Amino acid sequence: MVRLLSILFAIVPVLATSYADYDNDFVDPSYILSKDFPKTTTEAQQSIVQWADWLGNQGPCSWPNCSNVHNTTQLTPEQVWVQCDYVYRDGQFNPDRLLVNNTGQFEAMSDAVFYNTLAWVLTGSSNYSVNAAHFLNTWFLDPFTGMTPNLQYAQMSRGPTGQIGAHTGVLDLKQMTKITSAILILRGGNSPDWTTSLDTQMNNWTTHYIDWLTTSPIAYQEWTATNNHGTYFYNQLSSLQLLIGDKQAAINSTQFYFDNLYQTQINSTGDQVNAKIAKYLGLDMWNKTTAGGTTIKDALDLTMTVTNINTTDGDGPIWELYPSVAAVGAAYGDPDNKYASFLANADKQYPVQPYFLLNQNFSDSGLTTRATGNGVSLNPLGAGCWTALMLLATLLLF
């Protein structure tokens, strides 16, 4: 559960493109720190900085002070539903879950850390690295606001057998991958704001959390899940292992996922983020075939044929698909411009989106203007705001 400790009221410039919470991503820190970006990504870089400014004005977010109940979110007897059982229904949400929107605030915090870290590299301004370090310290490490390193009470069910979390609550921290990317960049760039003390404390916190993830009966149900929950679990676990420097464990987790769960998933889901982590670890999983002989690219190709490109409807999976299209086009190549054309047809502003910078080399379809001086003029108000509800890797809905 989370509260806003402070909200800085400020006049924020109109965003070059509307902020969107891409559900998850991993970026190779060496690519960002090299700053060797194509000129066509200039507008995407500007979007990242503007998103960082906007997100930086929203926080920091933190865990509430539950010290009197040992941070267990314990309810009083009057608050417990003692007669009505809770019934698990996959994909349906408990209407009281947002009374304290901890999941939403974690997503906001992880995006704030991710984009402020990227903006620090792009601009050289320590304002952004200060933000990132402050947000991380507030959420994870500060003794008064920090989160206990487990999800024992996540998505807790009330009722006669309540007061314990559900395995699906592990999904609430799926964006730890963004946190890992940010910390690896802060480390690699020797940010003075990400101090040795903060790094050591974060490693300790993460080590305890990994121990819970790999030993808790609750987490074990996610470990063995064959749908998107399992994909998210290994995505989260391998990135956390990278964060603490245990590269071999991250390799083992990633290899296990692709050798097992992935083998039966490809006709219902595809994975980019896990493949990006694998590439960083020196593993080629983009071309890993399932038991059916298909790849991530096949999953995306199928999805593109059944997705309605209705750009007036921002409530469908088409909006969630865009980063995956760019990721696959960058990973496999796009010699016939199939993927670039798909995006150009669906959203002429895609070169302004942050995911365009994170998935290079990928064609801008001649749409950028500031960097090249020609092409189609991009609407500065963006294509509209959408919320990514699934992992970038999840290409088909269950």
Structural features:
398 residues, disordered C terminus, 2 strands, Glycosyltransferase
Describe what this molecule looks like in 3D.
It is a single chain. It contains 14 helices and 2 strands. It has helices spanning 29-34, 42-56, 102-123, 126-141, 176-188, 196-215, 217-223, 228-243, 247-259, 273-280, 296-306, 317-332, 338-346, 354-358, and strands spanning 3-4, 61-62. It has a two-stranded antiparallel ribbon with strand order 1-2. The chain has a domain at 3-265: Glycosyltransferase. By secondary structure, the protein is mostly helical.
List the helices and strands and how they pair.
Layout: E1 3-4, H1 29-34, H2 42-56, E2 61-62, H3 102-123, H4 126-141, H5 176-188, H6 196-215, H7 217-223, H8 228-243, H9 247-259, H10 273-280, H11 296-306, H12 317-332, H13 338-346, H14 354-358
Antiparallel strand pairs: 1-2
Helix pairs in contact: 2-3, 3-4, 3-5, 4-6, 5-8, 6-7, 6-8, 8-9, 12-13
Strand residues, percent: under 5%
CATH topology assignment of the domain at 3-265: Glycosyltransferase
CATH homologous superfamily label of the domain at 3-265: Chondroitin AC/alginate lyase
Order of helices and strands: EHHEHHHHHHHHHHHH
**Rg over alpha carbons:** 21 Å
- Number of beta strands: 2
User: Separation of termini?
Assistant: 28 Å
What structural category do the secondary elements indicate? mainly alpha
Q: Kindly state the mean pLDDT as a whole number? A: 79
What spatial form do the alpha-carbon principal axes imply? globular
Which sequence of strands runs across the widest sheet? 1-2
The low-confidence parts are 1-14, 311-315, 370-398
- Label the CATH architecture of the domain at 3-265: Alpha/alpha barrel
What's the CATH first level of the domain at 3-265? Mainly Alpha
The largest β sheet comes out as: 2 strands, antiparallel
Helix content: 40-55%
How many helices? 14
